[in-house]
């Protein structure tokens, strides 16, 4: 068995407990490290300015293959779970209705009047911007990966000009599940890693 460490958010879509971080933010993490972490600790910087540290319910498990989220110790032994939005965990994807401008390292790297807003359960809304409205030359693909049972596998980009805070600061679902198919070919940004994410009238 290889010694790779996978961060697993152990939770269930039903019941009274939910993690304090959204599924976008970190369910399974492999390879590399996030800003504010050390390779030894495997701790994760919490997005949206909510502090640093390992997410509630997350455990580091040596695994020979990608584990799927599950419940309790069985999490490391099951395949990836696919869950569907419903009354207890609603997800909607709608036009943002605003112009979204993303600034980092003193420059505009995204400017879109066609952004989509994803709202998931009681987590903060997230804007997803079409790739054609993002300066992809300012981004660098990384090996970071995460998995959301409602949305699928996420890939990450860094913003080199932003230095450490730009590491894995952008994510995308390249083959999202049907419930959120609208966010395919869109990118989202960790707002607390940007200089500004502006919402302007169309």
Physical arrangement of strands within the biggest beta sheet? 4-7-8-12-11-10-9
The helix fraction, in percent, is under 10%
Please, what is the CATH homologous superfamily of one domain?
Answer: Domain of unknown function (DUF427)
Which structural class do you get from the secondary structure elements? mainly beta
- What do we call the CATH topology of one domain? Metal Binding Protein, Guanine Nucleotide Exchange Factor, Chain A
What ranges have pLDDT less than 50 throughout 5 or more consecutive residues?
A: 1-78
Oligomer: single chain
Instruction: Note the total helix count.
Output: 0
Sum this structure up briefly:
This protein has 202 residues and is mainly β. 0% of the residues lie in helices and 33% in strands.
What can you see in these coordinates?
- This protein has 202 residues and is mostly beta strands.
- It has a domain at 91-200: Metal Binding Protein, Guanine Nucleotide Exchange Factor, Chain A, CATH 2.170.150.
- 0% of the residues lie in helices and 33% in strands.
- The N and C termini lie far apart (54 Å).
């Amino acid at each position: 068995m290889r010694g790779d460490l996978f961060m697993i958010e152990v939770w269930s879509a039903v019941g009274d407990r939910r993690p304090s971080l959204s599924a976008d933010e970190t369910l399974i993490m492999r390879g590399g490290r996030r800003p504010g972490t050390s390779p030894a600790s495997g701790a994760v910087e919490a997005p949206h300015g909510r502090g640093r540290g390992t997410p509630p319910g997350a455990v580091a498990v040596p695994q020979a293959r990608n584990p799927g989220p599950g419940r309790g110790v069985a999490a490391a032994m099951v395949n990836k779970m696919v869950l569907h939005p419903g009354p207890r965990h609603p997800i909607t994807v709608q036009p943002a209705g605003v112009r979204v401008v993303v600034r980092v390292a003193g420059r505009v790297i995204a400017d879109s009047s066609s952004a989509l807003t994803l709202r998931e359960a009681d987590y903060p809304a997230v804007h997803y911007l079409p790739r054609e409205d993002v300066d992809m030359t300012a981004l660098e693909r990384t090996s970071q990966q995460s998995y959301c049972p409602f949305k699928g596998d996420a890939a990450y980009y860094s913003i080199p000009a932003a230095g450490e805070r730009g590491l894995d600061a952008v994510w995308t679902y390249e083959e999202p599940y049907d419930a959120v198919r609208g966010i395919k070919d869109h990118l989202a940004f960790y707002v607390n890693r940007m200089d500004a994410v502006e919402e302007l009238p169309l």
